[in-house]
Amino acid sequence: IHKHRIENGLISLSNMKAFVRCRFTAQPDKIEVNRPDRKTLAYDSIGWHGEPFTALAGMAYPTKEGQPITWDLTDSATPHCLICGTTGSGKSIELLTMAMSMAEATSPAQLALYVVDGGHHTLQPLSGLPHTVSHAVDHEGATETLAVICQIIAQRKRDGDAANSGRVLLVIDEFANLSEAVLRICGDKAQQEFISNFANITAEGRKWGVHCVCGTQKALSEVTGSLSKSNI
User: What is residue 59's predicted lDDT score, i.e. its pLDDT?
Assistant: First the structure.
């Protein structure tokens, strides 16, 4: 990685901070990068010009120009995305940025957003987008939204319609909190159905133009379900 970046003039050998320790883990793919100089990036200062179905996930550190880190819905290898982090680490802002940047470059006719905000209403700005079909803010709305997405997948399977009707993106913040709320208020059976519907979306969605980006503090199979974790 460093050889490629040096040869292409992205970093300088004289800048020791350019050498960032990275750890790569396979199955599932995961890259962890330390941040020696943590800085806040203003979205309007990045000069992002995305392609349809592409979300801005961040900027690579460090480069001379700043290389965007992106997520592409049309890449069959990464149909879903899971964002994990502790409280205050920026998960909700990351979800908001990714959804806003994707909507900016993709027309509402091509992309439908279903938003489940289980956090502190950070995703509220998405409700004003013409792409947004529904915006749930509690466990009841979350349960209903997941059921609707499963119905969309079932209908597309019956019609043999992959993404001709446009792609669907489910955005969920604080998945673990929502799942625990379903268990606490509605019981074990309701939680099992909640997790089962989520598993169906992550397993079947990739074939039918349905995608999910989810934020949670706990990336555990007990929270997301073992099938979901293996598919996201």
Answer: 77
Could you please report the per-residue DSSP string of 131-157?
A: TEEEEE-SHHHHHHHHHHHHHHHHHHH
Instruction: Tell me whether residue 182 is exposed, middle or buried, using C-beta atoms within 10 angstroms of its C-beta: 0 to 12, 13 to 18, 19 or more.
Output: buried
Profile the chain (232 residues) by mean pLDDT over runs of 10 residues: 58 62 62 62 76 87 70 90 83 91 94 90 92 93 94 94 89 87 87 89 92 81 56 68
> Smallest Cα–Cα separation from 168: which of 58, 79, 78, 69?
79
Nearest to 17 by CA among 36, 40, 41, 39: 36
Give one DSSP letter per residue of 9-58, joined into a string: TSS-TT-GGG---EEEETTTTEEEE--SS--PPPHHHH---PPTTEEEEE
Instruction: State the Rg of the chain over Cα.
Output: 19
**Burial class of residue 198 in the structure, from the number of CB atoms within 10 Å of its CB (0-12 exposed, 13-18 middle, 19+ buried):** buried
Nearest CA among 147, 139, 144, 97 for reference residue 118 = 139
User: Which residues have a Cβ under 8 Å from the Cβ of 161 and sit 6 or more positions away?
Assistant: 155, 208, 209
pTM of the model: 0.79
pLDDT at 178: 86
